[in-house]
Amino acid sequence: MKSQNQVVLSLGTNQGNRLLNIEKCLELIHQEVGTVIKISKLYETPSWGFDGNAFYNCALVVHTFASAHKILEQILNIEKRMGRVRDATSAYQSRIIDIDLIAFNEEIIDAENLKIPHPLMQNRKFVLLPMLDLNLDWVHPVFHKKIANLLEISPDDSVCTFVQNLEMPLAKIPLERYNYIAFEGNIGAGKTTLTTKIAEDFNAKTILERFADNPFLPKFYEDQNRYAFPLEMSFLADRYKQLSDDLAQFDLFKDFIVADYHIFKSLIFAKVTLAEDEYRLYRTLFDIVYREMPKPDLYVYLYQKTERLLDNIKKRGRSYEQNIPADYLDKINNGYLDYIKSQTNLNILIIDVSDRDFVENQSDYLYVLEAIKEKIGK
């Protein structure tokens, strides 16, 4: 599963309505580049390297799956759209917006058009002071110093004045009002990726299914009739143990928990894979287990077209999944939908993600968050 990159950006403006420029830039970054998870205070600082109006400056942390070079391309495009004009010289000058890529994880990048960490960050108080606000456990990979240490030895003695706090985009999406959210979906729908991303962005606790540890899974895809019952029983036992253990560690009234499955999926898959007599036995055992399990405050089903599921399964490359037939995925989807229709006491949200890619497209990820936000508001 692909991990998100932690990116630090520095914003500056000294033309026009400086506050509006910063706020608009933050919004565009959040909508197009990645999830803005931290923002510093806003500071006013004197122009650096030339005589000009004072700047408004801030720093922010972005979570994104994109590469550093892709991020550079995106922020240059935002600058251009906001009216930034770069002349042929490298001289410092007034600008409506300036977006600098300061850090990309703790990596060192030395390309012709991109230097990471930013080669002048240690000499700029208007970068270091806002970055200190972010409270990052980040160490400069060249100087091997934290931001506080760099600020202490920086040669820049200019005065940076606090202006105001800035609003966090995620503050408008209060997911934590639901203490426990379960994301569900068919094989290849992206539920684990989405769950992990939301947990990172919202600082939530996670419960992730341990499917890769099940020794019966590869055998099941080779001989379903023989291995269906031991597979479903082992999944039920493991899910029961994991949920019992993990939820016992958390406070269901205080912690924000996101899971990439709900234990009812055991019955959905069992109904598709088991013979009738096996299913009756399984259902008896399942009902005993299910009564003991806490129910999620919100159950989100990610609907995905079968063609896209097959494509996603192929891309992630698990050898034992490559021959899953389309009709099996159709049966699983119908099982989920039948279950959803039958529920009267479960808070359910169905999101069609068939034409969405919340890894590659930030707008698609925000589409999912917005759908949950609307559900919260009802």
Structure description:
It is a single chain. The protein has 378 residues and is of the alpha/beta class. The chain is 42% helix and 17% strand. The chain contains twelve helices and 13 strands. The strands form three sheets. Strands 1, 2, 3, 4, 5 and 8 form a six-stranded antiparallel beta sheet that branches. The protein has a five-stranded parallel beta sheet with strand order 10-11-9-12-13, sandwiched between helices. Strand 6 (109-110) and strand 7 form a beta hairpin. Helix 1 packs across helix 2. The longest helix has 26 residues, at 224-249. The protein is elongated. The two termini are 33 Å apart.
Gyration radius, rounded = 25 Å
- How far is the first residue's CA from the last residue's CA? 33 Å
Number of helices: 12
Structural class: alpha/beta
What level of helicity do the residues show?
A: 40-55%
Shape: elongated
Q: Taking all residues together, what is the mean pLDDT?
A: 92
**Total strands:** 13
What oligomeric state is this?
single chain
The low-pLDDT segments are none
**Strand portion, in percent?**
15-25%
Topology pattern, helix = H, strand = E: EHEEEHEEEHHEEHEHHEHHEHHEH
Q: Main beta sheet, described?
A: 6 strands, antiparallel
Quick structural overview:
This protein is of the alpha/beta class and 378 residues long.
Helices and strands in order, then pairings?
Blueprint: E1 5-13, H1 18-32, E2 35-39, E3 42-45, E4 55-64, H2 68-81, E5 98-104, E6 109-110, E7 115-116, H3 125-133, H4 147-153, E8 161-164, E9 180-185, H5 191-202, E10 205-207, H6 216-222, H7 224-249, E11 257-259, H8 265-273, H9 276-292, E12 298-303, H10 306-316, H11 326-342, E13 348-352, H12 362-377
Parallel strand pairs: 9-11, 9-12, 10-11, 12-13
Antiparallel strand pairs: 1-4, 1-5, 2-4, 3-4, 3-8, 6-7
Helix pairs in contact: 1-2, 3-4, 6-7, 7-8, 7-9, 8-9, 8-11
